[in-house]
Recover the amino acids of this structure.
C-alpha cells in the first residue's frame, strides 16, 4: 500500500478525502478515492472508506483525451454536442451543502460551446445558446432541472430521455448522455452533453404501441363475439369479452377448447370439410348452428380472416347471432301460411301487385270479382289485361300513380257494372309497399262490397238531406229535454253552433217574455204522445228576439216507448215584422197625408197671400192716379214676394229632381276662405239694422285650404242654413265656423235663436217637416229647405248633424271632402 499523503486531505466537517492508487493482489494498480473519518469509541479509531474510481477516471481520461480531437468532428456530428462550464469549480461530496451548490450551479454554469446539430434540434442560433444558464434553460420547471443536475453530479454521468420544446414551441423528444468534467483535484468544473433527436422514432414507437392498443381494444370490446383458432389443432388461441358473455364459457375454458366443442355433433363433419376447403383469406362461411354452454342452440353468421398469430397459422372469426332473424323467418313462414289461409277465406277481395301493376297474389274473393277460374289466371297480369275496359284503365293508371308518389289511397268508392248490367259498389284501398331503402316495390289492395250499404245510405241521405236542408229549424232532444241534434237552419237562425248546444236544454233560447203556462202545456202534450203547436218569442245568441211557429211531438221505438222529442220550428219573425210594419206603414201613411195636407195648406198660405199682394200692388201701379212717391216701395214689395215664391218653386223642383235622380252635382276645387268671405259679404247687408251680430271665425294659417264641391249647391246649403238662423233669431248672433277633421272640412252654422226641441231632432231633415205646421204658425217656410240641404251635402260626399236645445239656439254641422291643406 502506498504511503498516505495527508497534505492532499480535504477537511469537510470531520472527514478527509483524497485520491490515490491501490494495488491488487496480482500487482495491478487502480485509482481510488479514500475517505477517512476519526471516531471516538473508548478510544480514537480511524475509519477508512476506499472507492474504486476507475470508471470515473477512464471517463475523464477519455474525455480529456478526446478533447483534442473533438474540434475536428464537433460541428460535423449528426448528434448534438455542447459544453457547459462553471465559473468556479465545486467540490461535490457527502459533506457538501448540495442545495446551496445547486443554487450556485444554476446561476453560474453556462454553455460555452455547442455544435450545429444541437442548434438544429432546437431551431436556434449560436447566440441564443452561448452563455445561457440552467435557470434560463429550465425557467418553466427549475426544480425538475435541479433534480436532473443532482443525479448527474451524484453519478458523474447521466442517460435520460426527455421531451423538449423548440424555440418555435414544437415538441421534440431527445435522448442524451451527460458526463461531469473534473479538474485535477476532483472538483466539478462543468459537464459535456451528447443529445440525439429521437422524435421520429418515438412517434413511430408510439404509433405502433397505439395501433396495437387500438386493435386489442377493438378486438376485446367488439360487440360481436370474436375468436382466433389454430388451423392445425382447431384450438382457441384467443377470445374476446363478447364471446365469453354470449356463449357462457369463461376465458380460461375457451382456451382449453376447440371450435368443434361449440358445434352440435351433427354439424362437425360439415365444419371439418369447410375448414379444409376454405382457401380465401377473407371468407364468409354463411349460417351455422352453435351451441352455448347451457346447451342452447343458436344460429350465427360466420366471417373469418386468415392471419398469423403467435407464429401460428390461424383464423380470426367474427360470429353474428342471427337467431332472432332465423327464428323470425321460421315464424314468418308459419305466419305466411296462416295469413294465406285467412286471406283466401276472407269475403273481401285482397291482392298484391308488383312495381309494374302485375298481380302477384289474389285471394278467392278477388278471383271471383274479376271473373276468373283460379288465382293462376290472374297472376302476372295488369288490370288492363284483366278488365280491358275503362275500369281496367282506371285501375291500372291508379296503380302506377300510387307507386310513383308512394302515397296510399284509402277507402275510395268505385262502381263496377257486371255482365248482367247489375251495378255493384266497392270500397277500395291501395297501400304502397316499400323495400328497406324506401323504394316502392308494389302495392296491396283491399276491396269491400258496399252495394247494400250504399242503397241504405241513399235512403238515409234522402232523409238526412231533407232534414239538413229543411227551411225549418229541427231539434231532437232526449227524454230529459237535452239536445241531441240540431240542423243547420237552427244555427243560422239562433247563432248557436251545433257544438255549443249539444247536451244543453232548449231553455237557453227562452226570452223570458213568454208565460210559464205555455211551457207547461207543451210538456203535458208531448209527454203524453200528443202533438203541440204554438208560437214562441225566443232569444238568439246575440240577444236579438225572434218569433217561431213550433210543432212538437214525441218519437217512439219499436216497443212504443218514448225515446226522443222532436221540434220543427219556422221563423215567423218576418211575418210578425210585416204585421208590425203594416201598422207602422198605416200610421206613416196617415202621417204623410197629414203632412201633405199641412204642406198644401202652407203652400196655399205661402203662395196665395204673396200673390194677392203682388197682384194688388201691380194694379195700384197701373192706376194713373197712383201716387208716384210710393212707387219704389211697391216695386220692392213685388220683387221680394216674387223672389220668395221663386225660391219655393225652386225647392219643389229640387226635391223632385232628387227623388228622380236627375239632380246633378258638378264638383270643383273651392277655396274655403274665399267662399266664407263671399258669404260674409252677402249676409252683412241683410243683417244691417237687426239686433243680430254676424260672426265668421276663420282659423289662422287656413288661407290655402281647398275643398271639392259644387259651389252653387254649397252656396244653396249656406243660404238655407243662414236663412233659418236669421229667421229664428231675433237677437244675439249668427256664426260660421269651420275646422279640419281627418280628410274633411267640418263647417258649423250656429245661432242663439229659439232652438229646436229634442223630439224634432230626428225628423227635422224630413220633407214637409216643420217644428210648427199649423196654419197659424209664427214663422213661414215650406218644410223643404233642410231636406234639400241634407241631400245636397250627401251628394257632395259629406254628412250633416244637429245640436240644439229649446231656447238655447241651434248648431248645424256638415262636412265636405278636403283636397288641399
Amino acid at each position: 500500500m502506498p504511503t498516505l499523503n495527508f497534505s492532499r486531505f480535504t477537511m469537510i466537517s470531520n472527514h478527509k478525502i483524497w485520491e490515490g492508487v491501490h494495488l491488487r493482489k496480482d500487482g495491478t494498480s487502480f485509482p481510488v478515492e479514500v475517505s477517512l473519518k476519526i471516531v471516538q469509541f473508548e478510544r480514537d479509531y480511524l475509519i477508512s472508506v476506499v472507492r474504486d474510481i476507475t470508471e470515473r477516471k477512464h471517463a475523464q481520461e477519455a474525455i480529456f483525451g478526446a478533447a483534442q480531437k473533438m474540434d475536428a468532428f464537433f460541428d460535423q456530428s449528426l448528434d448534438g454536442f455542447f459544453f457547459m462550464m462553471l465559473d468556479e469549480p465545486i467540490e461535490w461530496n457527502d459533506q457538501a451543502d448540495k442545495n446551496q451548490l445547486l443554487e450556485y450551479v444554476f446561476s453560474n454554469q453556462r454553455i460555452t460551446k455547442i455544435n450545429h446539430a444541437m442548434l438544429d434540434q432546437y431551431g436556434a442560433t449560436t447566440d441564443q445558446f452561448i452563455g445561457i444558464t440552467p435557470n434560463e434553460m429550465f425557467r418553466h420547471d427549475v426544480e425538475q432541472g435541479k433534480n436532473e443536475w443532482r443525479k448527474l453530479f451524484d453519478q458523474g454521468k447521466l442517460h435520460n430521455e426527455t421531451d423538449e420544446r423548440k424555440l418555435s414551441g414544437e415538441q421534440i423528444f431527445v435522448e442524451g448522455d451527460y458526463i461531469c468534467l473534473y479538474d485535477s483535484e476532483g472538483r466539478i468544473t462543468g459537464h459535456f452533453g451528447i443529445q440525439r433527436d429521437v422524435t421520429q422514432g418515438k412517434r413511430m414507437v408510439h404509433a405502433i404501441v397505439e395501433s396495437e392498443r387500438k386493435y386489442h381494444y377493438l378486438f376485446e370490446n367488439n360487440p360481436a363475439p370474436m375468436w382466433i383458432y389454430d388451423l392445425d389443432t382447431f384450438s382457441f388461441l384467443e377470445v374476446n369479452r363478447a364471446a365469453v358473455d354470449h356463449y357462457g364459457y369463461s376465458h380460461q375454458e375457451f382456451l382449453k377448447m376447440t371450435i368443434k366443442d361449440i358445434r352440435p355433433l351433427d354439424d362437425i363433419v360439415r365444419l371439418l370439410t369447410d375448414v379444409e376447403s376454405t382457401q380465401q383469406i377473407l371468407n364468409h362461411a354463411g349460417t351455422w348452428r352453435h351451441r352455448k354452454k347451457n346447451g342452447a342452440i343458436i344460429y350465427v353468421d360466420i366471417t373469418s380472416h386468415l392471419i398469423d398469430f403467435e407464429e401460428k397459422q390461424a383464423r380470426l372469426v367474427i360470429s353474428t347471432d342471427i337467431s332472432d332473424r332465423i327464428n323470425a323467418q321460421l315464424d314468418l313462414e308459419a305466419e305466411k301460411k296462416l295469413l294465406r289461409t285467412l286471406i283466401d277465406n276472407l269475403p273481401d277481395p285482397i291482392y298484391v301487385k308488383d312495381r309494374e301493376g302485375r298481380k302477384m297474389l289474389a285471394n278467392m274473393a278477388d278471383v271471383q270479382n274479376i271473373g276468373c277460374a283460379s288465382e293462376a289466371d290472374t297472376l302476372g297480369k295488369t288490370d288492363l289485361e284483366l278488365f280491358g275496359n275503362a275500369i281496367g284503365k282506371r285501375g291500372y293508371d291508379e296503380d302506377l300513380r300510387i307507386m310513383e308518389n308512394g302515397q296510399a289511397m284509402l277507402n275510395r268508392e268505385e262502381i263496377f257494372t257486371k255482365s248482367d248490367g247489375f251495378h255493384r259498389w266497392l270500397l277500395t284501398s291501395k297501400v304502397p309497399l316499400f323495400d328497406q331503402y324506401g323504394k316502392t316495390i308494389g302495392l296491396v289492395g283491399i276491396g269491400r262490397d258496399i252495394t247494400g250499404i250504399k242503397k241504405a245510405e241513399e235512403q238515409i241521405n234522402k232523409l238526412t238531406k231533407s232534414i239538413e236542408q229543411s227551411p225549418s229549424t229541427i231539434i231532437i232532444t232526449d227524454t230529459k229535454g237535452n239536445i241531441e241534434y240540431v240542423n243547420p237552419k237552427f244555427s243560422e237562425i239562433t247563432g248557436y253552433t251545433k257544438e255549443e248546444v249539444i247536451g244543453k236544454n232548449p231553455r237557453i233560447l227562452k226570452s223570458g217574455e213568454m208565460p210559464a203556462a205555455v211551457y207547461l202545456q207543451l210538456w203535458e202534450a208531448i209527454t203524453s204522445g200528443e202533438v203541440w203547436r204554438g208560437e214562441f218569442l225566443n232569444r238568439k245568441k246575440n240577444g236579438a228576439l225572434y218569433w217561431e211557429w213550433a210543432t212538437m211531438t214525441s218519437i217512439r221505438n219499436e216497443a212504443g216507448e218514448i225515446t226522443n222529442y222532436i221540434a220543427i220550428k219556422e221563423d215567423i219573425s218576418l211575418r210578425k215584422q210585416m204585421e208590425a210594419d203594416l201598422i207602422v206603414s198605416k200610421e206613416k201613411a196617415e202621417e204623410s197625408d197629414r203632412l201633405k195636407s199641412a204642406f198644401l195648406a202652407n203652400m196655399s198660405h205661402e203662395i196665395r197671400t204673396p200673390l194677392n199682394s203682388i197682384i194688388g200692388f201691380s194694379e195700384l201701379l197701373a192706376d194713373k192716379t197712383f201716387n208716384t212717391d210710393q212707387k219704389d216701395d211697391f216695386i220692392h214689395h213685388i220683387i221680394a214676394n216674387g223672389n220668395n215664391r221663386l225660391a219655393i218653386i225652386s225647392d219643389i223642383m229640387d226635391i223632385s229632381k232628387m227623388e228622380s235622380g236627375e239632380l246633378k252635382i258638378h264638383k270643383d276645387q273651392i277655396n274655403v276662405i274665399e267662399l266664407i268671405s263671399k258669404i260674409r259679404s252677402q249676409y252683412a247687408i241683410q243683417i244691417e239694422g237687426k239686433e243680430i251680430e254676424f260672426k265668421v271665425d276663420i282659423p289662422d294659417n287656413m288661407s290655402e285650404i281647398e275643398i271639392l264641391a259644387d259651389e252653387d249647391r254649397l252656396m244653396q246649403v249656406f243660404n238655407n242654413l243662414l236663412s233659418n238662423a236669421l229667421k229664428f233669431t231675433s237677437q244675439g248672433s249668427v256664426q260660421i265656423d269651420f275646422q279640419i277633421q281627418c280628410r274633411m272640412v267640418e263647417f258649423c252654422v250656429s245661432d242663439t235663436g229659439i232652438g229646436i226641441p229634442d223630439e224634432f231632432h230626428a225628423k227635422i231633415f224630413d220633407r214637409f217637416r216643420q217644428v210648427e205646421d199649423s196654419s197659424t204658425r209664427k214663422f213661414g217656410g215650406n218644410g223643404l229647405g233642410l231636406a234639400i240641404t241634407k241631400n245636397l251635402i250627401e251628394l257632395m260626399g259629406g254628412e250633416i248633424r244637429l245640436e240644439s236645445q229649446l231656447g238655447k239656439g241651434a248648431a248645424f254641422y256638415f262636412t265636405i271632402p278636403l283636397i288641399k291643406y
Notes: The longest helix spans residues 573-622. Residues 391 and 416 are 8 Å apart (CA to CA).
